[in-house]
Specification:
two-stranded antiparallel sheet, 17 helices, about 400 residues, mainly alpha, single chain, elongated
Length: about 400
């Protein structure tokens, strides 16, 4: 018994090999998934959604056109003929005056359109109002409450007075006309001279800095804030826009979300379930290339129920996060991958989350020896140990000096 030979020999692949295998599988899944998504969206779900219909197709297009018309009419957007959309990113403008003119047009011309907003609301948009709420000057006439002044955009309160000042007629401020840029913003402090280069840059960023992500890591410009905080809240736009977003969601559901989830499900089954059944030992294409297989925790062949559990758990997690969408999807998926790979690195058998759940272990398929089950292992072990043990005698030392002669 002291010479009993142990036949089974499990060798685990390192985290690096598993990472390469996973990357190969992910690349294959992504490529096939995009193809499936295109085919499903273009030739299956979109035609179905328009034929049934699952949503008001014509209503969606009508509301989309109405939304764009309102946006373009207000002067804060322009119509992009290439993309067939309206956009607020008017990057062709190079000076603050161009953006300032668009905002003035919005308040002094567009909002003065009869029946667009109540006359009492339209009447409040005077040059003095503009000086206080856009240029950020003090309410020297005391026309507004502290709450109204406090509600001004942060950039207006913080920087407006750095750039603008009231026009003066002698020692009297001209409140009924738009303010002008401060003298110190001009060359040699002369208001009749051109703006300094620094002033041109600062004023342009004040009115339009092109930073649509300001809410996360930047400061909004007056132009963007007018669109986000003022125009978007107007009843004449928000009501149409709300209806449009409802229809857009329904269209997105059938043209993007359902095809996307279906494509992910089909590709996941193909890459992570069907291929392991075809290639045996739980091998995906990536694992096959990297010579990695799967066994159960006892060191025997994995069963189909184990493969099902190992496959469906991450799939359900990913699809659930995808349905929730947004930041949750990105953070949730990232966290799942991070925790799983951390376990692969630091656990003794390099097991991922789904390995723990399914009771599977990754092995080096070309270096390991394992069996289908305990019965097969016992038979083979008995056969090997029943073989006659031959002890090889230790060879005599070679006399190098005699050999040389």
């Amino acid at each position: 018994m002291e010479n009993q030979i142990k036949v089974t020999n499990i060798i685990h692949p390192g985290p690096g090999k598993r990472a390469v295998a996973a990357t190969i599988d992910l690349a294959i899944a992504a490529a096939v998934g995009m193809l499936f998504f295109y085919l499903l969206s273009s030739f299956v779900f979109t035609p179905i959604s328009e034929a049934v219909p699952t949503y008001d197709v014509q209503g969606f297009h009508d509301r989309a056109s109405e939304v764009m018309d309102i946006q373009v009419d207000c002067g804060l957007f322009y119509y992009d003929n290439d993309d067939q959309t309206s956009t607020a990113i008017y990057t062709e403008s190079e000076t603050y005056q161009e953006y300032d003119a668009k905002i003035q047009n919005y308040y002094f011309v567009y909002l003065q359109t009869p029946d667009l907003i109540p006359l009492a609301d339209a009447a409040k948009y005077t040059p003095y109002w503009y000086n206080v709420f856009v240029y950020g000057l003090d309410d020297e006439q005391g026309l507004y409450s502290e709450a109204e002044l406090a509600a001004r955009y942060d950039i207006v309160k913080a920087k407006g007075k750095l750039y603008f000042e009231y026009n003066m007629s002698g020692e009297t401020a001209e409140y009924d006309v738009l303010a002008t840029t401060r003298a110190d913003q001009h060359l040699e402090g002369n208001p009749a001279s051109d703006l300094t280069d620094d002033a041109k840059t600062s004023l342009l960023q004040y009115f339009y800095n092109g930073n649509l992500n300001y809410s996360s890591y930047g400061e909004g410009s007056i132009y963007i804030l007018t669109i986000d905080s003022d125009f978007a809240s107007r009843p004449f736009f928000s009501e149409v826009y709300a209806e449009y977003k409802t229809l857009e969601y329904q269209a997105t559901l059938w043209q993007i979300l359902i095809p996307e989830v279906t494509a992910i499900f089909l590709v996941a089954i193909l890459v992570y379930f069907v291929m392991p059944l075809i290639l045996k030992n739980g091998k995906t294409v990536g694992k096959y290339i990297m010579s990695i297989g799967l066994v159960n925790k006892l060191g025997y062949d994995v069963s189909i129920p184990q493969l099902v559990l190992r496959f469906f758990f991450p799939l359900v997690v990913v699809i659930g996060l995808l349905i929730i969408g947004g930041v949750t999807f990105a953070l949730g998926t990232g966290l799942f991958v991070l925790v799983s790979y951390t376990l692969v690195i630091f656990t003794k058998e390099h097991k991922a989350i789904h390995d723990f759940l399914a009771g599977t272990v990754a092995i080096e398929s070309k270096k390991s020896v394992w069996f289908k089950n305990a019965t097969e292992e016992a038979k083979y072990t008995e056969k090997i140990n029943a073989m006659k043990y031959v002890e090889i005698e230790k060879p005599l030392p070679i006399d190098d000096e005699k050999n040389e002669k």
